[in-house]
């Protein structure tokens, strides 16, 4: 059997979201050779899937795409997408990461991103990149500005009809592709594995994800995005333009029943942002935010909140107890009004749940780095160097270390790059003699 391939770098960045890309670019610009390992078929993380970003309301993909392209074209950065991390260990001076390349069933060296396979494929599947609201083909490029622009075949749903193989001009389709395992070594690693939303299905009081017009906040980001599933905001059950939209805050945070007792930090601000964008998209719609406290923690955020109130968005201080399906696709919200109104109910056309932020990756048993009781990566010097973990030469950046907004994610990623560079400067360079 052939020996598994080993490739050497200065730093391995795990996670190709905005945190990982920023750390990688900051290190690569200083001349360090960086491997970025991403589990999805494209880099970009959650940010490339957002509509606009608070508090500036800049277009998210306009900011993220250039970073993705810079990383992809940087001579010191190598991207490993659609890869699983099977284990990270320190062996003497080096960190070894064992990686599995998942099969795309399309040869990335041959695919020219022409999408002919996608057009020919007869199998339609829900497109989770669009919140599950529209369809994609069983072989497709993940989304329009994905990097790399390489098609991926969904082996579970492929009918093996052979249409994609027939039309591919470069013979890139390979139904017999197997997973490949290889090892990356480096002197340092940055863990930037981000976050996931707590699943709606875990919240029985809010319908377990079975009420069609109750969606999560990332799905609303897609409805609001310029390249969203409908190009306008429509409710999923019947394609009606919603006249009344509600946000339920702390739907999965500060909630011990969900195992998330902490504040997810960004939900107040993104709900306010989405409400503002909805006011623009649907000027006649009533928008209500049910909240426990508004935590407008960053620079300019309180003003952002005040602007939303001035725009006519209604803020109701209430804990939502129950959400039920109403008549004609409506959604009934039952809540206790904290401003003295007692128990009340209200019908809305569409309800958005601000679900909690969970770690995107649990290091155990793959990597001996410690996590806190909230399962995010532990910082051993949270005040003076929050990116330091308890594994030598391994740093954490972005939402992997706790819920945070993009501003804090970028600052932390720069800090992780500085700490990694300092660590490498303090030790002997080991790559000088390697090609
Ligand atoms: C609905 C919503 C709206 C938001 N809007 C805003 C906003 O307007 N402004 C703002 O400042 N912030 C906003 N945020 C917060 C923002 O999304 C985060 O700050 C940012 O995405 C964090 O970036 P990250 O790179 O740390 O994590 P992510 O974006 O989650 O990226 C992590 C990457 O790591 C990859 N990964 C995970 N595990 C592994 C593994 N084991 N191996 C390889 N790769 C892995 C993931 O696939 C992903 O690509 C919003 C959040 C939500 C939920």
Write the layout of secondary structure elements.
Elements lengths: L4 E4 L2 E4 L3 H11 L5 E4 L14 E2 L4 E2 H14 L3 E4 L2 E9 L2 E8 L14 H5 L3 E4 L6 E4 L1 E2 L11 E2 L9 H5 L12 E7 L1 E4 L3 E3 L16 E3 H8 L19 E5 L18 H15 L4 E6 L9 H10 L3 E12 L5 E7 L4 E7 L1 E4 L3 E3 L34 E3 L9 H21 L9
Parallel strand pairs: 1-13, 2-3, 2-14, 3-6, 14-24, 16-22, 17-18, 17-22, 18-19
Antiparallel strand pairs: 4-5, 7-8, 8-13, 9-10, 11-12, 15-23, 19-20, 20-21
Helix pairs in contact: 1-2, 1-8, 5-6, 6-7
Flavin-adenine dinucleotide binds next to helix 1, strand 15, helix 5, helix 6 and helix 8.
Describe what this molecule looks like in 3D.
The protein has 435 residues and is of the alpha/beta class. It has three domains: 5-102 and 179-194 and 360-426, FAD/NAD(P)-binding domain; 103-177, Alpha-Beta Plaits; 198-357, FAD/NAD(P)-binding domain (3-Layer(bba) Sandwich). 20% of the residues lie in helices and 26% in strands. It contains eight helices and 24 strands. It has helices at 18-28, 60-73, 116-120, 163-167, 217-224, 267-281, 301-310, 406-426, and strands spanning 5-8, 11-14, 34-37, 52-53, 58-59, 77-80, 83-91, 94-101, 124-127, 134-137, 139-140, 152-153, 180-186, 188-191, 195-197, 214-216, 244-248, 286-291, 314-325, 331-337, 342-348, 350-353, 357-359, 394-396. The strands form seven sheets. The protein has a seven-stranded mixed β-sheet with strand order 16-22-17-18-19-20-21. A hairpin with a 5-residue loop joins strand 19 and strand 20 (331-337). Helix 1 (18-28) crosses helix 2 and helix 6 packs parallel to helix 7. 45% of the residues are buried. The structure holds flavin-adenine dinucleotide. Flavin-adenine dinucleotide is lined by residues 14-20, 37-40, 45-47, 50, 53-54, 85, 192-195, 197, 217-218, 221, 266, 270, 273, 360-361, 398-400, 404-407, 409. Flavin-adenine dinucleotide binds at residues 14-20, 37-40, 45-47, 50, 53-54, 85, 192-195, 197, 217-218, 221, 266, 270, 273, 360-361, 398-400, 404-407, 409.
